[in-house]
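How a chain folds remains the central question behind the approach discussed here. For one protein, we set the task of working out the structure tokens from the amino acid sequence alone. The sequence in question and its structure tokens are set out directly beneath this paragraph.

_____
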Amino acid sequence: MVQVVVNDCQTFGSMLESIENISSVVARYTELETRVLIRTSVLTKQLSAALVKLYAAILRFLVQARRYYGYRTVSM
């Protein structure tokens, strides 16, 4: 039982760190979008497509995080 609680705490901590990292990435790339993606070139189109994939991956992760936090935790 103790190991389950420890694992749950570690998972919770990892999820929080990941969400913090995601916040940083989104803020950083929002700035990139406003400064770089206003230009029109092949490279900016490729960058834009890569950002769409990144944001989609972030949304998938956030859905998983929401599911994780939505589950009832082990109670003692």
Summary: The chain is about 85% helix and 0% strand. The chain has a mean pLDDT of 83. Residues 2-70 form one domain. The helical segments are 2-35, 42-70.
